[in-house]
Amino acid sequence: MVKIGIVTGSTRPARVNMQVAEWVRDFAEKMELEAEFEIVDIKEYDFPMFNEDLPPAMANKSYSKDTVNAWSKKIDELDGFIFVTPEYNKSITSSLKNAIDYIGPEWGHKAAGIIGYGSTLGVAASLSLRQILGNLNVATVTPFGAFSLFTDFEGMKTFKPNEVHNATVENVITTTVNWSKGLKTIR
């Protein structure tokens, strides 16, 4: 059994990110794979902007140290990830990049799937995230989900995915679980 974290990519008050993450979790749980799925909401960690003289784990600020320790523990206990990221300015959000940058080794030798969304399906954000994760030794799976703000959301506020995406999302989830199982053997 592997543990897969569905990592949110937005912290905005009016975000639709949680709707997509919850849909992915529910979809994954119905697949009856040998995996546990949980939402890991970066908003719950309330990271300050990464702007320290020392890496956060070594900083003397108790606020960031407590936050980073909780984040580190959560990411370390997971075997793989499915990132749900909106696209902002042809990339991921600054809040997701900030959360990723706060730790390093905890990400390594794990698999990640990516589900993007935006006005252009979140494709640029997904590609940007693949590059960032690759630098941390995260193996990103080839299929990725891509939802349109225009056709998969009502009024760009309510997530109502078209069924045409189901096969791709199933492939993302299955491949992420399988790679997570394989990579678990080398950690």
From TrEMBL:
<dbReference type="InterPro" id="IPR005025">
    <property type="entry name" value="FMN_Rdtase-like_dom"/>
</dbReference>
<keyword id="KW-0560">Oxidoreductase</keyword>
<keyword id="KW-0288">FMN</keyword>
<comment type="similarity">
    <text>Belongs to the azoreductase type 2 family.</text>
</comment>
<keyword id="KW-0285">Flavoprotein</keyword>
<protein>
    <recommendedName>
        <fullName>FMN-dependent NADPH-azoreductase</fullName>
    </recommendedName>
</protein>
<dbReference type="Pfam" id="PF03358">
    <property type="entry name" value="FMN_red"/>
</dbReference>
<dbReference type="GO" id="GO:0016491">
    <property type="term" value="F:oxidoreductase activity"/>
</dbReference>
<comment type="subunit">
    <text>Homotetramer.</text>
</comment>
<feature type="domain" description="NADPH-dependent FMN reductase-like">
    <location>
        <begin position="2"/>
        <end position="143"/>
    </location>
</feature>
<dbReference type="InterPro" id="IPR029039">
    <property type="entry name" value="Flavoprotein-like_sf"/>
</dbReference>
<dbReference type="InterPro" id="IPR050712">
    <property type="entry name" value="NAD(P)H-dep_reductase"/>
</dbReference>
